[in-house]
Amino acid sequence: xxxxxxxxxxxCTLHGxxxxxxxxxxxxxxxxxxxxxxxxxxxAEPLSITMRTPGDDLNLAAGFLYGEGLIRHRGDxxxxxxxxxSGNVVRVDTAAQAPHPGARNARNFYASxxxxxxxxASIEAVTSLLPxxxxxxxxxxxxxxxxxxxxxxHAAQTVFHRSGGLHGVxxxxxxxxxxxxxxxxxxxxxxDKLVGQALRDGALPWQDRVxxxxxxxxxxxxQKAMAAGASIVAAIGAPSTLAIDLAAAxxxxxxxxxxxxxxxxxxxxxxxx
Length: 273
What we know:
Layout: E1 6-15, E2 18-27, E3 30-38, E4 45-52, H1 57-67, E5 77-82, E6 89-94, E7 110-111, H2 123-126, H3 143-156, H4 158-163, E8 167-173, E9 178-184, H5 187-201, E10 209-213, H6 219-227, E11 232-235, H7 241-250, E12 253-256, E13 264-267
Parallel strand pairs: 3-6, 4-7, 10-11, 11-12
Antiparallel strand pairs: 1-2, 3-4, 5-6, 8-9, 8-10, 12-13
């Protein structure tokens, strides 16, 4: 267990007939167990295990519970802290009025770094505690500004530049200024870290903000963005059909295949100037 985002490992490189050993920076992936103590109870029950890059663990745990509908607002979160000796367990305390997971503990809450809704039996199960909700925000962002955001995100990804193995999620204002950035081997973890930071800072909802995803836009990422009130979500990659459907239902502006000179708008085109 390292607690670091990057580790040096020895690799053998081959270039034609040349062979050499060197030290390479590798993105760390370790399990994080999230335990929930509901209503001030002394004991905390295991809720989820996710494979993540160490760092921002408290924000990740808070953002995960917010995206699952187990925290509805800042007041539902009464405490979040590391517990145990490994550094890979986080305890989250929620208020008595916060939603209780109930039978959800019985189903699989394991998530790999690439799997978002593993263990979700159906769309009904996914949305049971977090129903579709309309986002606000009438502000517009220009297509020119949107086209500049991927390079700004990439330039700010310090851990990515060391390892080349991390996803990034960035939050921008409508003028294209970077407000916050989180990185992780898992796209959903990076977004949970970003949401958790904003939740704990009292900076939700994300009306008139642009959320930029370094990869594709999946249903789960749009669900987390919707919960955070993000009015504009842009992805460098492609969206899925279910992501488009959810964005349309929630009133989220969804942009995909974002490049410097081109983009696709799938929903909410009125917010793109």
